[in-house]
């Protein structure tokens, strides 16, 4: 289930218009009219992007008077944040091991140093 959620979020954020909406809503709620203004597309096309964001639970909207106000739902991004954190930890561990190996090889290359055991073992 978590993988499906992550896949949905990544697919939703693959579009630059939807990412721009998310970035704008990070600053606070906004009416649809204001969200659509910077994008060179007809309003019905823009509303399709908002629909995708709402189906992914990244954005919520409510009618306030004659306007529809959209707001970011940041908690919906938590599965992706956790996934990215795990990936970063894995890569940091790998680069730390690589740095240790490079350091050991550099020490061995210094004149007068005797070879040491392979640091990977």
From TrEMBL:
Gene3D superfamilies: Winged helix-like DNA-binding domain superfamily/Winged helix DNA-binding domain. InterPro entries: ArsR-like_HTH, HTH_ArsR_DNA-bd_dom, WH-like_DNA-bd_sf, WH_DNA-bd_sf. GO terms for molecular function: DNA-binding transcription factor activity. Coiled coil: none annotated. SUPFAM superfamilies: Winged helix' DNA-binding domain (SSF46785). Pfam families: HTH_20 (PF12840). PANTHER family: SLL0088 PROTEIN, TRANSCRIPTIONAL REGULATORY PROTEIN. This is Transcriptional regulator. It comes from Pseudooceanicola lipolyticus.
């Amino acid at each position: 289930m978590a993988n499906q959620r992550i896949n949905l979020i990544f697919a939703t954020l693959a579009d630059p218009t939807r990412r721009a909406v998310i970035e704008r809503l990070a600053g606070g709620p906004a009416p649809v009219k204001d969200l659509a203004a910077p994008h060179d597309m007809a309003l019905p096309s823009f509303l399709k992007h908002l629909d995708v964001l709402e189906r992914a639970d990244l954005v919520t909207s409510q009618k306030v008077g004659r306007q529809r106000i959209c707001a970011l739902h940041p908690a919906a991004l938590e599965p992706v944040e956790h996934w990215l954190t795990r990936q970063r930890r894995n890569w940091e561990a790998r680069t730390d091991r690589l740095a240790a190996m490079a350091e050991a090889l550099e020490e061995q290359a210094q004149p007068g140093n005797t070879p040491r055991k392979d640091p990977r073992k």
